[in-house]
Amino acid sequence: MEFCEGGDLNQYILSRRPDPATNKSFMLQLTSAIAFLHKNHIVHRDLKPDNILITEKSGAPVLKVADFGLSKVCAGLTARGKEGGNDNKNVNVNKYWLSSACGSDFYMAPEVWEGHYTAKADIFALGIIIWAMIERITFIDAETKKELLGTYIKQGTEIVPVGEALLENPKMELHIPQKRRTSMSEGIKQLLKDMAKRCRVLQLGLFTRDLQSP
């Protein structure tokens, strides 16, 4: 296994001053990595800063997506997500439905909490990571007491994962805390807006489906 001397994304980002160029590079690397996985019908299912390692052997930091213990290879599934179907190599990975609720709470999409999701759940986790990285939003992990990058909803004195909060109330307005104001590009702002909009539309669809279930 390759040694990544830069540590994980938490360690790297939180031990350095904010750098827009680094943020941009990491965004591009992360999106490229997830696109590669999905192109090869692999759903990671546990994307989080702890599982993103960094090597600096080439001078510039290079991200490595790690820990595929919960990953799902979908090439042997049918488009409806049933085992033993035809090998649909040309089927979009987002056509495969998964049901095992797994991952790390603060990065799980609402549909993962519900147990009915596709590879798009990786994109939700990616959005949480990118948002937290840009704004340097952190929380203290209850078990390890470590400071971790992660976006959340504030409910009174409690912090709640975004996905869990949206599952409980699909119509809630997102007031995600910003640790500090930054100068974000229009592209990044649009990414975050699209992510929030997708969550609302998705959850309304799940709610409607539940009402229609026998």
From TrEMBL:
One of its GO terms (biological process) is positive regulation of autophagy. Keywords: Kinase, Transferase. GO terms for molecular function: ATP binding; protein serine/threonine kinase activity. Residues 1-214 form the Protein kinase domain. The keyword Oxidoreductase does not apply. GO terms for cellular component: autophagosome; cytosol; phagophore assembly site membrane. The keyword Kinase applies. It comes from the Eukaryota. Pfam families: Pkinase. This is Serine/threonine-protein kinase 35. The gene is STK35.
